[in-house]
Specification:
- Residues 232-243 have a biased composition (Basic and acidic residues).
- The protein is of the alpha+beta class and 347 residues long.
- It has six helices and eleven strands.
- The relative contact order is 0.16.
- Mean pLDDT is 74; it is low at 216-248.
- The protein is globular and about 100 Å long.
- The chain has one domain (68-331).
- It has helices at 2-65, 142-149, 154-164, 187-208, 253-260, 264-269, and strands at 69-79, 85-94, 100-106, 114-120, 125-129, 136-137, 165-170, 179-185, 284-293, 300-313, 316-331.
Protein backbone atom coordinates (compact mmCIF):
# COMPACT_ATOMS: atom_id res chain seq x y z
CA UNK A 1 0.00 0.00 0.00
CA UNK A 2 2.75 2.37 0.90
CA UNK A 3 4.61 1.45 -2.31
CA UNK A 4 1.59 2.40 -4.40
CA UNK A 5 1.34 5.74 -2.62
CA UNK A 6 4.99 6.45 -3.28
CA UNK A 7 4.55 5.51 -6.95
CA UNK A 8 1.48 7.75 -7.26
CA UNK A 9 3.25 10.62 -5.60
CA UNK A 10 6.22 10.25 -7.94
CA UNK A 11 3.94 10.12 -10.98
CA UNK A 12 2.08 13.20 -9.81
CA UNK A 13 5.35 15.05 -9.21
CA UNK A 14 6.64 14.10 -12.64
CA UNK A 15 3.45 15.30 -14.29
CA UNK A 16 3.65 18.52 -12.36
CA UNK A 17 7.24 19.10 -13.46
CA UNK A 18 6.37 18.32 -17.08
CA UNK A 19 3.37 20.64 -16.97
CA UNK A 20 5.48 23.42 -15.48
CA UNK A 21 8.16 22.85 -18.14
CA UNK A 22 5.56 22.93 -20.90
CA UNK A 23 4.02 26.08 -19.48
CA UNK A 24 7.45 27.72 -19.35
CA UNK A 25 8.20 26.78 -22.97
CA UNK A 26 4.80 28.06 -24.05
CA UNK A 27 5.36 31.34 -22.20
CA UNK A 28 8.79 31.81 -23.81
CA UNK A 29 7.34 31.06 -27.23
CA UNK A 30 4.51 33.54 -26.76
CA UNK A 31 6.90 36.24 -25.54
CA UNK A 32 9.25 35.58 -28.46
CA UNK A 33 6.42 35.72 -30.98
CA UNK A 34 5.01 38.87 -29.41
CA UNK A 35 8.45 40.48 -29.39
CA UNK A 36 8.90 39.70 -33.06
CA UNK A 37 5.53 41.25 -33.80
CA UNK A 38 6.36 44.35 -31.77
CA UNK A 39 9.77 44.68 -33.38
CA UNK A 40 8.28 44.29 -36.83
CA UNK A 41 5.51 46.75 -36.01
CA UNK A 42 8.02 49.28 -34.67
CA UNK A 43 10.19 48.81 -37.76
CA UNK A 44 7.17 49.28 -40.00
CA UNK A 45 6.10 52.33 -38.05
CA UNK A 46 9.63 53.75 -38.35
CA UNK A 47 9.65 53.19 -42.11
CA UNK A 48 6.17 54.69 -42.43
CA UNK A 49 7.23 57.74 -40.40
CA UNK A 50 10.27 58.18 -42.65
CA UNK A 51 8.07 57.97 -45.73
CA UNK A 52 5.69 60.52 -44.25
CA UNK A 53 8.62 62.86 -43.56
CA UNK A 54 9.87 62.53 -47.15
CA UNK A 55 6.38 63.10 -48.55
CA UNK A 56 5.82 66.14 -46.34
CA UNK A 57 9.17 67.64 -47.34
CA UNK A 58 8.32 66.97 -50.97
CA UNK A 59 5.14 69.02 -50.55
CA UNK A 60 7.17 71.81 -48.93
CA UNK A 61 9.50 71.84 -51.94
CA UNK A 62 6.54 71.86 -54.33
CA UNK A 63 4.96 74.77 -52.45
CA UNK A 64 8.20 76.75 -52.59
CA UNK A 65 8.75 76.03 -56.30
CA UNK A 66 5.25 77.24 -57.17
CA UNK A 67 5.16 80.33 -54.95
CA UNK A 68 6.42 83.89 -54.94
CA UNK A 69 8.06 84.78 -51.63
CA UNK A 70 10.40 87.12 -49.79
CA UNK A 71 13.16 85.86 -47.54
CA UNK A 72 16.23 86.83 -45.53
CA UNK A 73 19.37 84.77 -45.09
CA UNK A 74 22.62 84.75 -43.22
CA UNK A 75 25.78 82.65 -43.32
CA UNK A 76 28.22 82.01 -40.48
CA UNK A 77 31.69 80.51 -40.59
CA UNK A 78 33.51 78.84 -37.74
CA UNK A 79 36.95 77.27 -37.38
CA UNK A 80 37.64 74.61 -34.77
CA UNK A 81 38.09 76.26 -31.40
CA UNK A 82 36.94 79.69 -32.56
CA UNK A 83 33.69 81.57 -32.29
CA UNK A 84 31.20 81.83 -35.13
CA UNK A 85 31.64 84.85 -37.42
CA UNK A 86 29.20 86.29 -39.98
CA UNK A 87 30.25 85.66 -43.57
CA UNK A 88 27.32 86.97 -45.60
CA UNK A 89 23.88 88.51 -45.40
CA UNK A 90 21.27 88.07 -48.11
CA UNK A 91 17.87 89.55 -48.81
CA UNK A 92 16.01 87.92 -51.67
CA UNK A 93 12.74 87.40 -53.43
CA UNK A 94 11.62 84.67 -55.82
CA UNK A 95 8.96 85.48 -58.38
CA UNK A 96 6.98 83.96 -61.20
CA UNK A 97 8.73 82.33 -64.19
CA UNK A 98 11.79 81.50 -62.04
CA UNK A 99 12.84 85.11 -61.53
CA UNK A 100 15.15 85.68 -58.56
CA UNK A 101 16.33 88.93 -57.01
CA UNK A 102 19.17 88.74 -54.48
CA UNK A 103 20.89 91.50 -52.52
CA UNK A 104 24.12 90.02 -51.20
CA UNK A 105 26.59 91.48 -48.71
CA UNK A 106 29.75 89.41 -48.30
CA UNK A 107 32.18 90.35 -45.54
CA UNK A 108 32.52 90.45 -41.79
CA UNK A 109 31.86 94.16 -41.33
CA UNK A 110 30.63 97.24 -43.14
CA UNK A 111 34.17 98.26 -44.15
CA UNK A 112 35.21 95.07 -45.94
CA UNK A 113 31.75 94.01 -47.13
CA UNK A 114 31.14 93.73 -50.85
CA UNK A 115 27.53 94.66 -51.65
CA UNK A 116 26.12 93.20 -54.85
CA UNK A 117 22.69 92.79 -56.41
CA UNK A 118 21.81 89.87 -58.66
CA UNK A 119 18.78 89.46 -60.85
CA UNK A 120 18.25 86.10 -62.55
CA UNK A 121 15.79 85.15 -65.27
CA UNK A 122 15.61 81.88 -67.23
CA UNK A 123 17.57 83.61 -70.02
CA UNK A 124 20.24 85.64 -68.21
CA UNK A 125 21.79 86.75 -64.93
CA UNK A 126 22.38 90.47 -64.26
CA UNK A 127 24.66 92.06 -61.67
CA UNK A 128 24.99 95.50 -60.12
CA UNK A 129 27.22 96.83 -57.38
CA UNK A 130 25.91 99.21 -54.76
CA UNK A 131 27.65 102.13 -56.47
CA UNK A 132 26.48 101.24 -60.00
CA UNK A 133 23.43 102.65 -61.72
CA UNK A 134 22.70 100.22 -64.52
CA UNK A 135 22.49 96.44 -64.41
CA UNK A 136 24.99 94.45 -66.46
CA UNK A 137 24.45 91.04 -68.00
CA UNK A 138 26.89 88.37 -66.84
CA UNK A 139 28.99 87.25 -69.75
CA UNK A 140 30.00 83.82 -68.45
CA UNK A 141 28.24 80.53 -69.25
CA UNK A 142 24.73 80.60 -67.79
CA UNK A 143 24.88 77.14 -66.24
CA UNK A 144 27.99 78.09 -64.23
CA UNK A 145 26.80 81.41 -62.84
CA UNK A 146 23.35 79.97 -62.08
CA UNK A 147 25.01 77.13 -60.19
CA UNK A 148 26.85 79.68 -58.03
CA UNK A 149 23.75 81.79 -57.51
CA UNK A 150 21.93 78.72 -56.19
CA UNK A 151 23.93 79.08 -52.96
CA UNK A 152 21.57 81.93 -52.11
CA UNK A 153 18.29 80.44 -53.39
CA UNK A 154 16.20 78.44 -50.85
CA UNK A 155 14.48 76.58 -53.70
CA UNK A 156 17.84 75.29 -54.89
CA UNK A 157 18.74 74.23 -51.34
CA UNK A 158 15.66 72.03 -51.08
CA UNK A 159 16.51 70.52 -54.46
CA UNK A 160 20.02 69.82 -53.21
CA UNK A 161 18.58 68.27 -50.07
CA UNK A 162 16.65 65.66 -52.06
CA UNK A 163 19.57 65.09 -54.42
CA UNK A 164 22.15 64.41 -51.69
CA UNK A 165 20.12 63.13 -48.70
CA UNK A 166 20.73 59.63 -47.36
CA UNK A 167 18.08 59.87 -44.63
CA UNK A 168 15.05 62.09 -43.88
CA UNK A 169 13.08 61.99 -40.63
CA UNK A 170 10.84 63.98 -38.36
CA UNK A 171 12.50 65.63 -35.38
CA UNK A 172 10.43 65.92 -32.23
CA UNK A 173 6.64 66.20 -31.93
CA UNK A 174 4.42 68.73 -33.64
CA UNK A 175 4.68 72.16 -32.03
CA UNK A 176 2.59 75.31 -32.22
CA UNK A 177 5.04 76.56 -34.86
CA UNK A 178 4.74 73.53 -37.11
CA UNK A 179 6.62 70.33 -37.96
CA UNK A 180 10.38 69.87 -38.17
CA UNK A 181 12.16 67.54 -40.58
CA UNK A 182 15.86 66.69 -40.59
CA UNK A 183 17.81 65.45 -43.61
CA UNK A 184 21.32 64.01 -43.31
CA UNK A 185 23.36 64.24 -46.50
CA UNK A 186 25.56 61.55 -48.03
CA UNK A 187 29.27 62.39 -47.51
CA UNK A 188 30.16 60.70 -50.82
CA UNK A 189 27.61 62.74 -52.77
CA UNK A 190 28.79 65.93 -51.05
CA UNK A 191 32.41 65.21 -52.00
CA UNK A 192 31.46 64.69 -55.65
CA UNK A 193 29.51 67.94 -55.68
CA UNK A 194 32.38 69.88 -54.09
CA UNK A 195 34.89 68.54 -56.59
CA UNK A 196 32.68 69.57 -59.51
CA UNK A 197 32.10 73.05 -58.06
CA UNK A 198 35.83 73.67 -57.64
CA UNK A 199 36.56 72.48 -61.17
CA UNK A 200 33.91 74.81 -62.59
CA UNK A 201 35.13 77.80 -60.62
CA UNK A 202 38.80 77.20 -61.45
CA UNK A 203 37.91 76.89 -65.13
CA UNK A 204 36.01 80.18 -65.11
CA UNK A 205 38.79 81.96 -63.20
CA UNK A 206 41.31 80.76 -65.78
CA UNK A 207 39.18 82.09 -68.62
CA UNK A 208 38.83 85.51 -67.02
CA UNK A 209 42.49 86.17 -66.29
CA UNK A 210 44.40 88.13 -68.96
CA UNK A 211 47.54 86.73 -70.62
CA UNK A 212 50.60 87.34 -68.45
CA UNK A 213 52.42 89.39 -71.10
CA UNK A 214 49.45 91.64 -72.00
CA UNK A 215 48.20 94.02 -69.30
CA UNK A 216 44.45 94.60 -69.31
CA UNK A 217 43.02 97.94 -70.31
CA UNK A 218 40.78 99.52 -67.73
CA UNK A 219 39.08 102.81 -67.18
CA UNK A 220 37.58 103.29 -70.65
CA UNK A 221 35.20 100.33 -70.95
CA UNK A 222 36.98 99.01 -74.08
CA UNK A 223 38.85 95.87 -73.08
CA UNK A 224 41.10 94.27 -75.68
CA UNK A 225 39.80 90.77 -74.91
CA UNK A 226 36.56 89.10 -76.04
CA UNK A 227 33.53 89.52 -73.82
CA UNK A 228 33.77 85.93 -72.58
CA UNK A 229 37.29 86.38 -71.18
CA UNK A 230 37.49 90.05 -70.21
CA UNK A 231 39.00 90.93 -66.85
CA UNK A 232 38.52 93.67 -64.31
CA UNK A 233 40.52 94.68 -61.22
CA UNK A 234 39.13 94.55 -57.71
CA UNK A 235 36.30 97.02 -57.12
CA UNK A 236 38.46 98.99 -54.64
CA UNK A 237 41.47 99.11 -56.99
CA UNK A 238 42.46 102.71 -57.88
CA UNK A 239 42.41 101.85 -61.60
CA UNK A 240 38.76 100.91 -61.50
CA UNK A 241 36.65 103.03 -63.80
CA UNK A 242 34.87 105.87 -62.05
CA UNK A 243 31.13 106.12 -61.83
CA UNK A 244 31.25 109.35 -63.81
CA UNK A 245 32.64 107.49 -66.85
CA UNK A 246 29.46 105.46 -67.07
CA UNK A 247 31.29 102.13 -67.27
CA UNK A 248 30.39 99.11 -65.16
CA UNK A 249 32.54 96.40 -63.71
CA UNK A 250 32.61 93.20 -65.80
CA UNK A 251 31.44 89.96 -64.25
CA UNK A 252 34.87 88.66 -63.25
CA UNK A 253 36.53 85.86 -61.30
CA UNK A 254 36.45 87.85 -58.06
CA UNK A 255 32.68 88.15 -58.27
CA UNK A 256 32.46 84.42 -58.87
CA UNK A 257 34.41 83.89 -55.64
CA UNK A 258 32.08 86.23 -53.78
CA UNK A 259 29.11 84.30 -55.08
CA UNK A 260 30.58 81.01 -53.93
CA UNK A 261 31.63 82.21 -50.49
CA UNK A 262 28.59 80.73 -48.83
CA UNK A 263 30.55 77.54 -48.13
CA UNK A 264 33.90 78.05 -46.48
CA UNK A 265 35.56 74.88 -47.74
CA UNK A 266 35.00 75.52 -51.45
CA UNK A 267 35.80 79.21 -50.97
CA UNK A 268 39.14 78.29 -49.40
CA UNK A 269 40.03 75.58 -51.91
CA UNK A 270 39.01 77.79 -54.85
CA UNK A 271 41.92 80.12 -54.05
CA UNK A 272 44.21 77.74 -55.95
CA UNK A 273 45.66 79.60 -58.97
CA UNK A 274 44.10 78.66 -62.33
CA UNK A 275 45.89 75.82 -64.12
CA UNK A 276 47.25 74.25 -60.93
CA UNK A 277 46.03 71.27 -58.95
CA UNK A 278 44.95 71.94 -55.34
CA UNK A 279 47.33 70.42 -52.80
CA UNK A 280 44.58 69.80 -50.29
CA UNK A 281 43.48 66.39 -49.14
CA UNK A 282 39.99 65.14 -49.90
CA UNK A 283 37.77 66.81 -47.27
CA UNK A 284 35.77 64.68 -44.86
CA UNK A 285 32.33 66.23 -45.26
CA UNK A 286 29.10 66.04 -43.30
CA UNK A 287 25.94 68.08 -43.74
CA UNK A 288 22.47 68.31 -42.22
CA UNK A 289 19.39 70.28 -43.29
CA UNK A 290 16.66 71.11 -40.77
CA UNK A 291 13.36 72.48 -42.07
CA UNK A 292 10.50 73.90 -40.01
CA UNK A 293 7.25 74.22 -41.98
CA UNK A 294 3.58 75.01 -41.49
CA UNK A 295 1.75 71.69 -41.18
CA UNK A 296 -1.40 73.08 -42.84
CA UNK A 297 -0.03 75.09 -45.75
CA UNK A 298 3.34 73.32 -46.15
CA UNK A 299 5.02 76.72 -46.41
CA UNK A 300 8.51 76.66 -44.90
CA UNK A 301 9.14 78.90 -41.90
CA UNK A 302 12.92 78.53 -41.91
CA UNK A 303 15.60 76.32 -43.45
CA UNK A 304 18.82 75.69 -41.55
CA UNK A 305 21.87 73.99 -43.08
CA UNK A 306 25.05 73.02 -41.23
CA UNK A 307 28.12 71.66 -42.97
CA UNK A 308 31.44 70.51 -41.53
CA UNK A 309 34.61 69.95 -43.56
CA UNK A 310 37.84 68.49 -42.14
CA UNK A 311 40.88 68.45 -44.42
CA UNK A 312 44.58 69.26 -44.84
CA UNK A 313 45.78 72.01 -47.14
CA UNK A 314 49.47 72.81 -47.68
CA UNK A 315 50.43 71.12 -44.43
CA UNK A 316 47.78 72.81 -42.32
CA UNK A 317 44.78 71.11 -40.72
CA UNK A 318 41.38 72.78 -41.17
CA UNK A 319 38.10 72.06 -39.43
CA UNK A 320 35.53 74.38 -41.00
CA UNK A 321 31.85 74.70 -40.17
CA UNK A 322 29.43 76.63 -42.37
CA UNK A 323 25.88 77.45 -41.39
CA UNK A 324 23.13 78.80 -43.64
CA UNK A 325 19.87 80.13 -42.23
CA UNK A 326 16.98 81.19 -44.48
CA UNK A 327 13.94 82.80 -42.86
CA UNK A 328 10.77 83.33 -44.91
CA UNK A 329 9.07 86.67 -44.39
CA UNK A 330 6.12 86.63 -46.78
CA UNK A 331 4.49 84.36 -49.33
CA UNK A 332 2.49 85.46 -52.35
CA UNK A 333 4.62 88.52 -53.12
CA UNK A 334 7.62 89.27 -55.30
CA UNK A 335 9.88 92.15 -54.28
CA UNK A 336 12.03 93.02 -57.28
CA UNK A 337 14.50 95.89 -57.72
CA UNK A 338 13.04 99.40 -57.95
CA UNK A 339 15.41 100.30 -60.78
CA UNK A 340 15.59 97.79 -63.66
CA UNK A 341 17.75 99.82 -66.08
CA UNK A 342 19.61 97.30 -68.24
CA UNK A 343 17.41 94.28 -67.42
CA UNK A 344 15.67 92.88 -70.47
CA UNK A 345 12.03 91.84 -70.02
CA UNK A 346 11.94 92.83 -66.37
CA UNK A 347 8.51 92.27 -64.73
Amino acid sequence: MQGKKRCGSATYLLRTVRLAHFTLLLTVAVLFFTGCQMGGREGAQGSERTMRAEDALGRVKQTLDQSSFIYDGEVFWQDAGSSSTPAALVHGSAGPNRHLYVRLSVGQDAVTADDMDFYATPEAVYIRFADDVAWQKADVPMEIVQRELQNWDPRAHLGRLFRLAESIRYVGPRSSDGLTVEAVLSPQAMAQELEQDIQNRTHVAGQMMPPADIPPKTGNGNDTFPESVRWAPDRHHPDRASKESGSSRPFDAQIMRQLSSGRKVDDRLSETPPGTVPSSSTPALSGTYTVLFNAKTFEPIWIDYRERAVYDDEGQRYDDTTRYRFTFRQFGSFEGPSDTLGIEQAP
